[in-house]
Design a protein that fits this description.
This protein has about 70 residues and is an all-alpha fold. About 50% of the residues lie in helices and about 0% in strands.
Length: about 70
């Protein structure tokens, strides 16, 4: 990603050009959705398909409950 940013003319730290520079490959144990992704899911029109609307609603409720639970910790 940093090299892509450099190719796009964005400022990047000079150490990226060092021959020993590498991006560690680590499996993530947590994944996150950005606000715009959550809003896209929330605002999507499922054309009256009740099963999909319910799945969306339960997903959003789960996100909110997880956020609240993490906030309390």
């Amino acid at each position: 990603m940093a090299r892509d940013a450099m190719l796009q003319g964005l400022p990047v730290h000079e150490h990226i050009n060092h021959p020993k520079f590498f991006a560690p490959k680590v499996k993530a144990d947590s994944i996150y959705l950005r606000d715009e992704q959550i809003n896209k899911i929330y605002n999507h029109d499922y054309k009256g398909v009740v099963r999909l609307e319910n799945a969306r609603d339960l997903f959003i409720i789960g996100l909110i409950m997880t956020l609240l639970e993490n906030w309390r910790l």
